Amino acid sequence: MAGLLALVVLGLAGAVSATGWAEARAQVAKLAPWQVGLLLLLSLANYAARGLRWHLFARHIGLGLGLRANLRHFLGGFAMAVTPGRLGELVRMRWIARETGVAFERAAPLLLVDRASDLAAMAVLTGAAVLASGLRIAGGGPVLALALLAAVLATRPRLLAALARLGHRATGRFGRLFARLRRAARALAPFASGGVLLRGSVLALFGWLAEGLAFFLLLHWMGAGVSAATAIAIFLFATLAGGLTGAPGGLGGAEAAMVALLSLEGVPLAVSVPATVLIRLTTLWFAIAIGAAVFPVAERHSRRISDALD
After folding, report:
1. pTM for this structure?
2. Extents of the domains making up the chain
3. Which end of the chain has less neighbouring CB within 10 Å, N or C?
């Protein structure tokens, strides 16, 4: 983690050095405190919408936890957002088990449906923004097509299970992969009824739209002539691309994609690099900071309840 973060910092610092630190500092100096505050508020809107979605999913499977507890678990898990594959966020399952006595197997689908809902919302929003902006991304078509296909499958567990069975019968190979897909379909099945997965994805869509708008505002304040649709498309596509690298939090991949796509739109490095750094600070690292503050509270609270139940 430390090595990866150091490489990202060095890469961004090198890009800034290529155009001059004075110019980058001048771009950052354009921002007033209230503007930075607005960026953070838009990020909070994202976390609030997705936190409500987590509460919606938790209630749907009958965990019996209130809104405050579910938000505490959701936000506290952000402290582990930069673990490989974000597996550290499984700590939410530990808190749920301590406070409710629910087995891991019953609560674990929450993590999967949370990812599936995010993917569905981001894929739809990215596709709409790309079409509205006319943005041309080399290799972007296949990536968006795969994301949209994954979004469709993630929100239709029966279709996912059927395709997994057909795929295994047709190929006779990749048994482990198709078995995982069938298990994922079974885990998502409880959320397919009552439109709960659709409602959760709508909440996620508004959440990610808020962060995309934050990126547009930031670029606008720095003088970049980029439309709202283009800014949203670049932000979300870079976030998806960063996730595909498998790096914790998409570190490196997301930043590189943002800078490259902004450069293709004619945004100079003196603007694109500080804008990328600032948007990552006010989104990913702001979430991690919130998670770091909530994490010990969630840990103490879950232990206290667990001790009381014992």
Report:
1. 0.84
2. 30-155+192-309
3. C
